[in-house]
Write a structure and sequence with these properties.
Radius of gyration of chain B: 20 Å
Order of helices and strands of chain B: EHHEEHEHEEEHEHEHEEHH
CATH architecture of the largest domain in chain A: 2-Layer Sandwich
Strand content of chain A: 25-35%
Shape of chain B: elongated
Largest sheet of chain A: 8 strands, mixed
Distance between the termini of chain B: 42 Å
Oligomer: heterodimer
Structural class of chain B: alpha/beta
Chain lengths: 368, 216
């Protein structure tokens, strides 16, 4: 069977490209049911983007939910072999409340997870695939990378309460340097390092040089190592170190990252290492992964479809069915899309308007 | 609008604050002569400087920026606290200074045993403030003239922006608690910050030089 790629929408094309990309790197598709036991989400509520979940009772009275998230289901069912790495990808719909409308929305998500004995190579590969995923959507993309180890080290050195930590993290996420200054002033701590960390952005090599002046240690070495590797492999213009990528510290550790496409106003890819979440779910293995949100890609297609149909063929009650059929077949065989109607539908954009007469097809209007 | 992508789109809050903020942009090196002519237009461009300004309702600036219709904009901290938009808050401009406060009639005595009735435009700020204290409240959401709510007995207190306190005084009200200081902030769309980084950094640079002057 041959598929005409031109009939596919942008997000459909992306789904196919991503799937073949992940398959190529040895990831297997993970297929799951639309439903999951509600219990799973109650225990890990903070991990989810929104609290609202669509629930319903199964025939046996068990409370089920329409999946708001895929990662939790994958972790729940993992075999967690400690010496190898389980590599899976998924392509599923999730159900979440969208921010503006406060109503439920179905969002198509594609993503991948590596679970097991995660090492630098797995992290590198995940980040590389994140870049490749973005690239398959548009050449003009940016992947912001942060390392929670570096951020949490600085924040923990302050020895402040949880609520102050949370307020600081919020400021980091907003690149809100004046906010950090104020909190540090109120708490009587020296926030210079943190302010510097937040202000860093841009070319990765340049940022790393600056970073080495304010911190050192395992996390920085790992960040330097992996980011340089990405730069060496052709992503130097797309990868940025940006510490404003903040994910919940009680779930994420190590690398966290977010992907952006020029022309889409919010991030389309989000991921990181979530060893802490694994621990919470009593799994011994480590994990890293990301998800691509496809619901915003339709905004990318700047050119509206020029024509709905190539040829609109008009007929009336007296038209002979087989004559009409022949005319449509002839047009279709020449590679045109054809619609047959008795009257011209309002607002339909056609390239050519034809009328079927007794003697044959007559062209009434030519638009291109 | 063929050059929509290469220009920096800036949303300014309509009104006195917006005019002040525009002068700050101008001093930062991004003037736009056509904006200074008195006209009914809403969009103004300076192609040479690659900027496009537009006036929008102050409370809408955050929405324009969050959704990427504007790359950067200026919004009050009150709006950012109330709507929690997913944007970068790059700079405190130190203008439009006022505070979010709780006010009540002069003779008001708080009875902690009762649910407090609070009239406000800022439901989220109010909810967060009182829940941080563990106080049970009943929020009465109003869109304007908040001051008359306690006078007519609609509410016990109000949560609103207080600039000079004149309106409160004239209505026999007074501030009983301050919640948070407010001022105008320069905000940026998260994706624009990456793809128009050079332009945004230039604006930031120009602003930083000037705000530091102001603080001296």
């Amino acid at each position: 069977m041959q598929i005409d790629a031109s009939v596919l929408k942008k997000e459909e094309k992306v789904v196919f490209t991503l799937r073949s990309l992940y398959e190529k790197y040895g990831f297997n598709q993970y297929k799951m049911s639309k439903f999951e036991e509600y219990d799973l989400y109650v225990k890990n509520k903070d991990f989810l983007v929104s609290d609202n979940i669509i629930t319903f009772t199964d025939t046996d009275g068990k409370l089920l939910a329409l999946k708001p998230d895929v990662t939790l289901s994958i972790i729940k069912n993992t075999n967690e072999s400690k010496s190898t790495v389980e590599k899976v990808y998924y392509n599923e719909n999730v159900y979440r409340v969208s921010k503006g409308t406060e109503s439920y929305k179905e969002i198509m998500q594609v993503g991948l997870e590596c679970i097991g004995d995660i090492d630098d190579f797995n992290i590198y590969e995940t980040l590389m695939l994140a870049c490749e995923s973005l690239k398959s959507i548009s050449q003009d993309f940016v992947l912001d990378i942060s390392h929670m180890g570096i951020v949490s080290e600085i924040i923990e050195s302050f020895g402040v309460s949880r609520s102050v930590e949370k307020a600081l993290l919020k400021c980091i996420g907003e690149k809100n340097i004046h906010g950090i200054k104020e909190i540090c002033k109120n708490e009587g701590i020296d926030g210079t390092k943190l302010e510097k960390l937040v202000s860093l952005y841009g070319n990765p090599q340049k940022v790393i040089t600056e970073l080495k002046r304010i911190c050192q240690g395992e996390s920085l070495n790992q960040l330097t190592y992996i980011v340089s590797e990405l730069c060496k492999n052709g992503y130097q213009d797309s990868v940025r170190i940006d510490f404003s990528v903040i994910n919940d510290m009680s779930y994420y550790n190590g690398f966290v990252f977010k992907g952006f496409i020029n022309g889409i106003s919010a991030g389309v890819l989000s991921g990181g290492q979530y060893d802490n979440l694994m621990l919470k779910m009593r799994k011994k293995a480590k994990a890293v992964g990301f998800a691509v949100y496809l619901d915003m890609l339709e905004r990318l297609e700047i050119n509206d479809k020029e024509y709905d149909v190539d040829a609109l063929i008009l007929y009336d009650e007296s038209t002979n069915l087989s004559a009409l059929n022949d005319a449509i077949k002839l047009l279709a065989e020449s590679g045109k899309s054809v619609a047959a109607q008795k009257n011209v539908p309002e607002k339909l954009k056609y390239r050519q308007l034809l009328r079927l007469k007794e003697r044959g097809v007559e062209i009434i209007e030519n638009n291109a | 609008m063929k050059s929509l992508k290469t220009m920096l789109n800036i949303a300014l809050p309509k009104g006195r604050l917006g005019e002040k903020v525009y002068t700050m942009f101008k001093d930062a090196g991004f003037p736009c002569p056509s904006i200074e002519e008195n006209s009914r237009k809403l969009i103004f461009e300076n192609e040479e400087k690659q900027v496009r300004y537009f006036w929008v309702k102050p409370s809408d600036v955050a929405i324009y920026v969050e959704r990427g219709a504007a790359d950067i904009g200026v919004a009050g901290k009150d709006i950012l606290l109330e709507y929690q938009p997913d944007v970068y808050e790059l700079l405190d401009l130190n203008v439009g200074k006022c505070k979010m406060a709780v006010a009540a009639k002069k003779e008001f005595r708080d009875d902690a045993g009762k649910t407090l009735r609070v009239a406000t435009k800022f439901a989220n700020i109010t909810k967060n403030y009182y829940s941080s204290m563990g106080r049970e409240i009943d929020i009465i959401h109003l869109n304007g003239s908040i001051e008359i709510a306690p006078i007519l007995g609609l509410s016990d207190v109000i949560v609103d922006i207080v600039e000079t306190g004149t309106t409160l005084k004239e209505n026999n009200l007074e501030v009983i608690e301050s919640i948070v200081p407010i001022s105008a902030r320069l905000i940026a769309n998260k994706a624009s910050f990456k793809f128009k980084n050079d332009l945004i950094e230039q604006v930031l640079c120009g602003f930083k030089v000037n705000t530091e002057d102001n603080n001296d």
